[in-house]
């Protein structure tokens, strides 16, 4: 990729915008470091995807998406944590509700986008519909949800004149996104899919086709692409945590492509993120399997109440924050029985009280959530 040209700067009068080159063309990988990283990334994703075969992934998908939603939104400045992502709106303090709603929209956008992949290809239409869900009834809802921008935007700076980066003029978005879509779906292009999605992510962030939400959508597209190509059977790999922990490098490497035409350095960073994230995903699933074994032993000690306990545990894998009222609903027993089961779970360190309230206490499945926090 030595001959790669990222684009040109265009004088728009009182400001300059960046016009990226089209990407649907023949690419040649000549950097051996990239080839080596690609091989490792393929291996690690294969190991991670293997869990889809013998672990009930559906139980744990929600945790993966909740982590992605909180980390991707954190890059944009929101402060919702994983425990809060599973609370009801009424349980969130007024000053944090805007952040919480953005995270909930991200979760909804990912879930709906994965469903849409059954009927839609990886396309501008899919991207627009996902964006519409992302910005529904939150900050940015006035910024054309589901529609490409019809005006100039910029990144950083109080005004366009002191912006860190000015994306291409809105008049070229149609052509650029069409090119990106064709590149993504061109089966005759021999470029490996992990390299393709690395280029697609860079190009999407450079085009910045929406007035708001570009970062979150761009990161979400990585997982959608991997699922659409069958590289992952389920959406269980997300890079936002890696990007958040390496935020400066993330932005610096994207910028370097535009300023130095250095796509190789970006791809090395991107593939390193795939490798690290997939490895941590494997560790998390190993931790889940060990946790399940440990819980089986604990639950058996409850004797004839173990059936009720298992119902609650199964629920906690998808919704790791619970109250006694929900336990009553799950086991279809009296309040006294439910409270006793909750108390047993606390003694066994399965549940931890987090609300500090005297009534309507909330409990978190802490050991399980910690597996994803440490992932």
Instruction: Quote the average pLDDT.
Output: 92
How many independent structural domains?
Answer: 2
Distance from N terminus to C terminus (CA atoms, Å) equals 33 Å
Strand order of the largest sheet: 3-5-4
Q: Measured on Cα atoms, how large is the radius of gyration?
A: 23 Å
Let me know the largest β-sheet. 3 strands, antiparallel
Helical fraction: 55-70%
**Tally of alpha and pi helices:** 15
CATH architecture grouping of the largest domain: Orthogonal Bundle
Quickly name the level 1 CATH class of the largest domain.
Mainly Alpha
Count of distinct strands: 5
Low-confidence stretches: none
Order of helices and strands: EEHHHHHHHHHHHHEHHEEH
CATH fold-level topology of the largest domain: Fic-like fold
**What is the 3D shape?**
globular
Helix-strand makeup class:
mainly alpha
Residues in β-strands, percent = under 5%
CATH superfamily of the largest domain: Fido-like domain
Structure, described:
This protein has helices at residues 32-54, 57-75, 82-85, 97-116, 124-134, 173-185, 193-207, 214-228, 240-245, 247-260, 263-300, 306-318, 324-331, 335-347, 366-373, and strands at residues 7-11, 16-20, 321-322, 352-353, 363-364. The protein has 375 residues and is mainly α. Strand 1 and strand 2 form a beta hairpin. Helix 2 (57-75) crosses helix 4 (97-116) and helix 10 packs antiparallel against helix 11 (263-300). The protein is globular and about 75 Å long.
Question: What is this structure, in a nutshell?
Answer:
The chain is mainly α. The protein contains 15 helices and five strands.
């Amino acid at each position: 990729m030595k001959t790669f040209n990222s684009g040109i700067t265009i004088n728009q009068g009182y400001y300059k915008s960046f016009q990226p080159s089209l990407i649907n063309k023949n690419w040649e990988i000549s950097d051996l470091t990239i080839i080596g990283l690609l091989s490792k990334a393929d291996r690690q994703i294969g190991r991670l995807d293997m869990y889809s075969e013998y672990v009930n992934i559906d139980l744990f998908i929600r945790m993966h998406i909740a982590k992605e939603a909180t980390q991707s939104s954190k890059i944009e400045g929101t402060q919702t944590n994983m425990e809060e992502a599973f609370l009801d709106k009424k349980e969130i303090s007024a000053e944090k509700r805007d952040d919480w709603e953005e995270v909930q929209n991200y979760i909804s956008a990912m879930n709906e986008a994965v469903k849409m992949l059954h009927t839609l290809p990886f396309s501008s239409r899919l991207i627009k519909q996902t964006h519409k869900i992302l910005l529904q009834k939150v900050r940015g809802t006035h910024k054309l949800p589901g529609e490409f921008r019809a005006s100039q935007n910029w990144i950083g700076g109080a005004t366009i004149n002191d912006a860190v980066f000015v994306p291409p003029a809105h008049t070229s978005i149609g052509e650029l996104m069409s090119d990106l879509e064709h590149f993504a779906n061109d089966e005759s292009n021999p470029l490996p899919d992990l390299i393709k999605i690395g280029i697609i992510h860079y190009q999407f962030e450079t085009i910045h086709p929406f007035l708001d939400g570009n970062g979150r959508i761009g990161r979400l597209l990585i997982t959608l692409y991997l699922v659409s190509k069958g590289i992952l059977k389920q959406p269980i790999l997300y890079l936002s945590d890696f990007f958040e922990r390496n935020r400066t490098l993330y932005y610096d490497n994207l910028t370097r492509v535009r300023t130095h035409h250095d796509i190789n350095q970006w791809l090395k960073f991107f593939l390193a993120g795939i490798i690290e994230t997939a490895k941590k995903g494997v560790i998390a699933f190993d931790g889940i399997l060990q946790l399940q074994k440990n819980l089986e032993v604990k639950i058996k000690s409850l004797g004839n109440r173990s059936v009720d306990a298992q119902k609650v545990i199964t629920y906690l894998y998808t919704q790791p924050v619970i109250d006694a009222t929900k336990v009553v609903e799950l086991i279809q027993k009296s309040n006294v029985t439910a409270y006793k089961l909750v108390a047993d779970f606390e003694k066994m360190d399965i549940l931890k009280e987090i609300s500090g309230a005297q009534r309507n206490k909330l409990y978190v499945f802490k050991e399980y959530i910690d597996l994803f926090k440490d992932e």
